[in-house]
Design brief:
Blueprint: E1 2-6, E2 9-12, E3 17-24, E4 33-38, E5 45-50, E6 57-59, E7 67-72, E8 77-82, E9 91-97, E10 102-103, E11 107-112
Parallel strand pairs: 2-11
Antiparallel strand pairs: 1-3, 3-8, 4-5, 4-9, 5-6, 7-8, 9-10, 9-11
Length: 113
């Protein structure tokens, strides 16, 4: 099983980034998937979730209206579009396969003021 995140980087507050997570070695299109993040010195926290078909999503309150989770099952790829980034969004972002407990290696996002 492989989950490979990409698209992280450094951006100024108010900017945008799009994270991608490519999955291989499992049936990508049948599992709900999520994004989590872990800020320095803090616990890992839930960010967003999408069901297997992509038609149901939910978000933690702090990112609602700014982040959008989506997926392309034909490409085995999960996305997180992050707009209006804030300094408090700085974290290591992980993709996760629900019910399988598969984690990616993390993509670092740094937002500066």
């Amino acid at each position: 099983v492989q989950l490979v995140e990409s698209g992280g980087g450094s951006v100024q507050a108010g900017g945008s980034l799009r994270l991608s997570c490519y999955g291989a070695g499992f049936s990508f299109g049948v599992w709900d998937m999520s994004w989590f993040r872990q800020a320095p010195g803090k616990e890992r926290e839930f960010v967003a979730r999408i069901n297997w078909s992509g038609d149901t999503t939910n978000y933690t309150d702090s990112v609602k209206g700014r982040f959008t989770i989506s997926r392309d099952n034909a490409k085995n790829t999960l996305y997180l579009q992050m707009n209006s980034l804030r300094t408090e969004d700085t974290a290591l972002y992980y993709c996760y396969v629900n019910s399988r407990n598969y984690w990616g290696q993390g993509a670092r996002v740094t937002v500066s003021s």
